[in-house]
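TODO from last week: model Peptidase.
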Amino acid sequence: MKSPPVSSPAVIGVPGLPWGDAERLAWRTRQTRHRSYEADVLRAIDPMQGRFDVLTYGELVCGEDRYPLRAVRSPQWVAGLPGVLVTGGVHGYETGGVHGALRFLDQCAQGYSGRVNWLVVPCVSPWSYEHIQRWNRDAVDPNRSFRQPGSAPESAALMSLVGAYKGQLQAHIDLHETTDSDETEFRPALAARDGLAFEAGSIPDGFYLVDDSRNPQPAFQQAIIDAVERVTPVALPDHRGQLIGSPMVARGVIHYDFQSLGLCAGITGARYTTTTEVYPDSPRATPEQCVEAQVASIVAALDFVIQQGG
């Protein structure tokens, strides 16, 4: 499930100047559809009707393309049970999150019905999934857009869905990947788009989590780390004690301010929140292991919430 290489943005625009509409259009015309949201996601969800509640929570319109936005919910939403939100594919190129969410639904979700209320959105950004992109069609990062006003349409649609469950969600696990293409394509693209100089970084070799700096929950993060390291290696800090430029506050854990950055993991106000980061390009792991790591993360999060009694 590795992503194919994508083109460099370096030739778009004038170095040092932020992109305008013409540059964004030039970027969009270079994007190629590599895979099918309908084949990979919608056809996987359709057979779940009857077992679970399948919801269409909106439609993403991208030029002539229209994408129905689907969520899957536990078949009975029981008042008084803790609720858990699982999201994948906020960054469409991060394949393991999408397929991890789908595999959890297919193989594990039924065992949690009646024990916890769960809501799973396997692919938040369908256009980005098909084009293997971090950004949406407008060269906007959905995972910096979970705020009002001016949200990316993918983000706005998810916020509208989640708003109906306000006060009912105890946990949210947002499934992501960190890939080599972050360093070779997406961070250079971000620098070019914003008229900044690109500063090279490094990619952690292994799984890690991002906790909310405003609401740290170390026991929740530790439960996920413990489960995942049975499946795939946990990332070690670099020589500065950091992962991806942030201090490692616990084994395999860093902190971001979810709210100020407009991150998906900050939309619920839930007590327990985290962003997973698997590394499918690692020589120590396979993309299949990364999908399994995402499933293990979801299961660990649900088990933790159940053990805490909500």
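Done. Residues 287-307 form the longest helix (21 residues).
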